[in-house]
Amino acid sequence: MRRPRDARDLKEQNLVARSKAGERYVEKIETKGDLMVALVYPNGYELAASNLGFNLVWKYLNQLERVRCERFFFDESFERFYSIDSLTPIDQFAIWAFSFHFENDIVNIMKLLLRKSVPLRNVDRSQSHPIILFGGALCYTELPLLNVLADVILHGDIESMLPQLNEVLHPTGRSELLRAFAGLPFASVPILGKKCESVSHCADLDFFVPVSPLICRLGEFAHKLLVEIERGCIHRCAYCMMGKLKKPARFLSLERIASVSQKHDSVGLIASNVTDYPWLDELIDLLEESKVSVSVSSLRMDRLSERFLRFLRKHQKSFTVALESPSERIRAIMKKDLTEEQVEKAFQLAKKAGFEEIKVYFMFGFEEESEQDLMAIGDMAKHLLELGFKTVKLSINPLVPKRGTEFEKRAMQDEKILRQKMKIISSSLPVRAKVHFESLRHSRIQFFINSMDEDIAEELLMKVQQADSPERVINDVARAV
């Protein structure tokens, strides 16, 4: 750790140190290797702490013979960027590996690179620059922007990459490392013209047991051990990458979950849909016997049971579901196969189980939807209040067609049209409903990142390189194309 240079430097170090102070290690992670890898979550610490994939990659990379991997997060005030694990500045690391899960985080990645004087385009970097590597959920498919920005892209599940990564990750020169990465079937190295040959796939979760190596006091799953019980998804919703790119769905066995739950009193279950778990009743038995406190994220409405919801109510005050549309006709277009009867049954079961707070996700921005379909969101909110829910929260988001989904060839609706639709929805909503509309600007950036080709990516990065605000340039270019 270096001594702070000034008050601003000290403030940055203190913020990072306070984040680490709230962590409790479940496994001992040794950072002893001589190839320095900075694992960067390109957003705030609370989001990094809640991302099981980020923490698993940190654990796995430090199991490699020659690698010393330390974690970093982004904050708007940062200039030096110190690691969570030792307060080492990021400049001392040979590889900067970005955990890339959300398109809007590209703005923070650009800001970090600009502040550290690293050229945004891979062709402009020299031997003195770190290798800029990308992995994560958005790397299961090919994004043309990354072919211009990244030196290396790793596609797929890290677990099955580890033996080959162990062979190539040794301290050596930048060019030698790039050539070594180019020899891996799951890697793209754009500067060398190397494309991904096959996406890495972890077939057996039981072999690795995806459990977080630490527990954090901050984030969505504060004070809980994160356990991934499902990877992939058995459903094929037309707007979602999960079911198409991470198939087939794989599940952690009851025996493995038991070995974890017996050692901890609070767990967060990570899955695309917890209710898809094949042995759900047995899982409830296990968790009840272990007296473990449990949290889950969003649930699928057609697979809920009275028993599961009563169990969940003992641990959570709020019930969250992704309905997406109150119209069965629009849900059919999305391939979100939920009938009106299934939706109503789910709401009734949740109320019967004792939930007084409910959160529902909706989506709009389809060419096929009518004004009546939009107004039905408000009708649904009124119905939930009439059922007796004291708090009704709605998260309403425009459709963002993405690569790797059935909707990838669709265009995002024009901002003017979307604003008109938002007004229609807003006019239908009851006063008591708590409503959040996703920013249209942020949604437009998501779509732009997903849909641009390499020529536009080149133009974008050259303009951002000369600008003081990456976000403004991205917005301007997105509006122009």
From TrEMBL:
Coiled coil: none annotated. Gene3D superfamilies: tm_1862 like domain. One of its GO terms (molecular function) is catalytic activity. SMART domains: Elp3. It comes from the Bacteria. Residues 219-441 form the Radical SAM core domain. PANTHER family: RADICAL SAM DOMAIN PROTEIN, SLL1084 PROTEIN. This is Radical SAM protein.
